[in-house]
């Protein structure tokens, strides 16, 4: 018997995000190597939106978003970890162009 496949549909204003994996170590803007064991308090991270609920107003699948991963729910699908959160828990969306942006670019 073949296992049935199910499509995941997010409900309401929920957003499913795939976290961007960081490398083992980072470099500061001055070139100093920061080991992976260093934990930065209250650090926001970037991720890619993989699913949105029908009530999500500003984000869409494929958007790059900034959020705090500490208080979010994790779910594993086919060996990949995703975070599930409300749209209001997102802090920023990276867009190619914007009239009201900060002038900062990734």
UniProtKB/TrEMBL annotation:
Gene3D superfamilies: GroES chaperonin
Keyword Chaperone: yes
Domain of life: Bacteria
Keyword set, alphabetical order: Chaperone
Residues spanning the signal sequence: none
InterPro entries, alphabetized: Chaperonin_GroES, Chaperonin_GroES_sf, GroES-like_sf
Pfam families reported for this sequence: Cpn10
Family statement drawn from the similarity comment of this UniProt entry: Belongs to the GroES chaperonin family.
Complexes and interactors: Heptamer of 7 subunits arranged in a ring.
Purpose of the protein: Together with the chaperonin GroEL, plays an essential role in assisting protein folding. The GroEL-GroES system forms a nano-cage that allows encapsulation of the non-native substrate proteins and provides a physical environment optimized to promote and accelerate protein folding. GroES binds to the apical surface of the GroEL ring, thereby capping the opening of the GroEL channel.
Protein name: 10 kDa chaperonin
Species for this entry: Sphaerisporangium dianthi
């Amino acid at each position: 018997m073949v296992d049935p496949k199910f499509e995941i549909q997010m409900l309401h204003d929920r957003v499913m995000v795939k976290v961007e994996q960081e490398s083992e170590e980072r470099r500061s803007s001055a070139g100093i190597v920061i080991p992976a064991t260093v934990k930065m308090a209250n650090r926001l991270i970037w991720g890619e939106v993989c699913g949105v609920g029908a009530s999500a107003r500003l984000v869409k699948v494929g958007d790059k978003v900034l959020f705090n991963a500490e208080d979010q729910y994790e779910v594993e699908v086919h060996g990949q970890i995703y975070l599930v959160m409300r749209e209001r828990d997102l802090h920023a969306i990276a867009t190619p162009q914007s009239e009201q942006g900060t002038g900062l670019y990734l």
